[in-house]
From TrEMBL:
PROSITE patterns referenced in this protein's UniProt entry, alphabetically: TPR
Protein name from the UniProt record: Tetratricopeptide repeat protein
UniProt xrefs under Pfam families: TPR_16, TPR_2, TPR_8
Signal sequence bounds: none
Record keywords, A-Z: Repeat, TPR repeat
Renumbered ranges of TPR repeats: 62-95, 165-198
Length: 229
């Protein structure tokens, strides 16, 4: 009987210690989740406050540093964003989220060679490429005059998000510039379905028709576009 009572006391003690140890983590998780809610709602100052409180209590809370970097990117503070991602990479050189974030920092600064390099490293270390990943990488390749690389990434972007207007416009421009007018027409048409009031796209659709030999149709579209401006 005494043995059973001792076991019960030990069980209660262990449970109490575990609860005490776990509570700070639970509290930090709640604070982190609150920061995520604020970030998604566009309340960036409140989000930063939450994430800062997290890292003040736990310097190893990697996710909070990553989200702070994301918030700073959202408000176009590339210097602060770079500091957050770099801090993570000092501790975890293969952190794919930090590498991708650093790539976006380089991209926003128009440092396209380093942007492409960071994007590729992030993919190598497990970053799950989404439409934005392929769009950013595609535009970076385009700025570096790597047309084939740009087309490949932009097409991948459209596979994941067929309504990505920036990818459609970039592919339309590439097609037109390279004399692939029928392809350009297809992309301009798709863009105009999304943005019927886009006078530039309508004008370029007209020019593409003219370059394809459909002069009357092309001039009609160009005139319509000029009237929209």
């Amino acid at each position: 009987m005494l043995y059973i009572r001792i076991l019960c006391l030990l069980f209660v003690a262990v449970l109490f210690v575990r609860t005490v140890i776990a509570y700070p983590g639970i509290k930090l998780k709640a604070l982190y989740n609150q920061g995520m809610t604020c970030m998604k709602a566009g309340q960036f100052d409140a989000a930063l406050h939450c994430f800062n409180q997290v890292v003040l209590k736990d310097r190893n809370y990697t996710a909070a540093y990553l989200r702070m970097g994301d918030v700073y990117l959202a408000v176009n503070n590339t210097k602060a964003a770079e500091e957050q991602y770099s801090y993570v990479l000092q501790r975890e050189p293969r952190n794919c989220e930090a590498l991708y974030g650093l790539g976006v920092v380089h991209f926003n600064r128009k440092n396209y060679p380093d942007a492409v390099r960071a994007f590729e490293q992030s993919a190598d270390y497990g970053y799950k490429a989404n439409a934005d990943f392929h769009l950013n990488k595609g535009v970076a390749h385009l700025q570096l005059r790597d047309t084939s690389g740009a087309v490949q990434e932009l097409l991948s972007c459209l596979e994941l998000n067929p309504a990505e207007a920036r990818a459609l416009q970039s592919l339309a421009h590439i097609s037109f510039t390279n004399g692939k007018y029928e392809d350009a027409i297809l992309y301009w048409d798709r863009l105009l379905l999304l943005q019927p009031g886009n006078a530039f796209a309508l004008f370029m659709l007209g020019k593409s028709h003219i370059s394809s030999g459909r002069t009357e149709r092309g001039e009609e579209l160009c005139n319509k576009a000029l009237q929209m401006q």
